[in-house]
Design a protein that fits this description.
The protein is mostly beta strands. The protein has one domain: Distorted Sandwich (Deoxyuridine 5'-Triphosphate Nucleotidohydrolase, Chain A), CATH 2.70.40. The strands form 3 sheets. Strands 1, 3, 4, 6, 8 and 9 form a 6-stranded antiparallel β-sheet that branches. A 3-stranded antiparallel β-sheet has the order 2-11-7. A two-stranded antiparallel sheet has the order 5-10. The two termini are about 25 Å apart. The N terminus is likely disordered. GO terms for molecular function: dCTP deaminase activity. This is dUTPase. Keywords: Hydrolase, Nucleotide metabolism.
Length: about 150
């Protein structure tokens, strides 16, 4: 890990979100899946699942036990000589919530998503812009061609 922790983290997307400059936390929007997705070998039949956003009431949301899609408010613009990873914050897993995400490709620009698994049988109460995860960027030895995947 190097000193590039904030390298690539930019302003939140169009929703209001106060992100303290001393925090590497990621603020979420939470969705439930409403259809099946299609995953294939060469993406010729790929289809992402439809989702429905869960609404915060009075800046709070009770999330029952289960699996959800998280869309973080922040936008990343990863440089060609860096990759990133999303890690769960300890306050999340102590409450029975786990965040799982893949590697952030070098050259990726856009918002990040992850899976939120609420393991606590009582669910979790999330406040709007709660920090569920943190991003760590790692500097690579050199530049690569960059991300060309469809997200």
């Amino acid at each position: 890990m190097s000193a590039v922790t904030f390298r690539g983290l930019s302003r939140p997307r169009d929703r209001a979100c106060a992100v303290p400059s001393s925090s590497s936390g990621c603020a979420p929007s939470i969705f439930r899946w409403t259809s099946a997705g299609v995953i294939d070998f060469d993406n010729s039949a790929r289809k992402t699942s439809a989702t429905e956003e869960l609404s915060f009431q009075n800046s709070r949301l009770h999330v029952p036990q289960g699996a959800y899609l998280v869309q973080f408010n922040e936008i990343v613009a990863t440089l060609l000589d860096a990759t990133g990873e999303v890690f769960v914050r300890s306050s999340s897993f102590r409450s029975g919530a786990v965040v799982t995400a893949g590697l952030i490709d070098a050259g990726y620009h856009g918002s990040l998503g992850a899976v939120l698994q609420v393991l606590n049988p009582h669910g979790v109460h999330l406040h709007q812009n709660a920090r569920l995860a943190q991003i760590v960027f790692r500097e690579m030895n050199g530049e690569v061609e960059g991300s060309s995947s469809v997200y």
